[in-house]
Amino acid sequence: MASERKFVAENIRRVLLKEYLMKTVDRAGFGGVDVQRTPMGTRVTLVTERPGIVIGRRGAAIKSLTKAIEDNFKYDNPQIEVQEVDNPNLNAQIMAEKLAFALERGWHFRRAGHSTVRRIMESGARGCLIIISGKLTGERHRTEKFKEGYIKYCGESRELFVGTGFAVAKLKPGVIGVQVEIMQPGARLPAEIDVMAMEAAIQANPDLAELLKKQEEASVIAERPAEDVPAADDEEVTE
């Protein structure tokens, strides 16, 4: 098998695994999954809101889940590691699932969208974007967006600091798609710079101490008035 086909097959398997875990551990609050190959086998890191439900009594639930992953997805010696989310309101996947559940319970989409945005921003996020699409009020499809704060749409900053989650709400008129994007509180953009004082700059960069001192002396000389600079004596020119 060519290397390109191997990459495609591996990514398809990971997507299917994510969809399976979203359905299996939905009661625990699925927040994401990460698959890594190790010399001992395959390590599956599962992020949830309530890890106790995934582990089960005396580890019975996690053992059955490990067996199902090994049989259905053909992973070599899978080892599941369950992590608890520090702040569920800053996890895009968890908030997308909660928003979809609120829509299924009968909440109006505007009320649910604004409430979710407020909860996310009150938790300290730098920005939030919610997209709800489907048959919201009638037979025609429409899309509504709720945004607050700052969101990066492309580039390395988006890959590092923006989390994305997707969920589906099943209603009588049809399905409604919910997409949530959250920019984390500690996000630092390339355009954001800090101007440091001379003493702080020297302490942070000891190797640049001499260069900074020379620049400071040159700036002082340049700012000195012309009358303070002694003029050279005129020399008599003799032929």
Which helices and strands occur, and which strands form pairs?
Blueprint: H1 3-24, E1 30-38, E2 41-48, H2 51-55, H3 60-73, E3 78-84, H4 92-104, H5 109-122, E4 127-134, E5 142-149, H6 156-161, E6 162-170, E7 175-183, H7 198-204, H8 209-223
Helix pairs in contact: 4-5
Explain briefly what this protein structure is:
The protein is α+β, with helices and mostly antiparallel strands and 239 residues long. It is 40% helix and 24% strand. The protein contains 8 helices and 7 strands; from the N terminus they run H-E-E-H-H-E-H-H-E-E-H-E-E-H-H.
CATH class of the largest domain: Alpha Beta
CATH architectural arrangement of the largest domain: 2-Layer Sandwich
CATH fold node name of the largest domain = Ribosomal protein S3 C-terminal domain
Largest sheet: 4 strands, antiparallel
User: Biggest sheet: strands side by side, in what order?
Assistant: 5-4-7-6
Number of helices: 8
The amount of beta strand, in percent, is 15-25%
CATH superfamily of the largest domain: Ribosomal protein S3, C-terminal domain
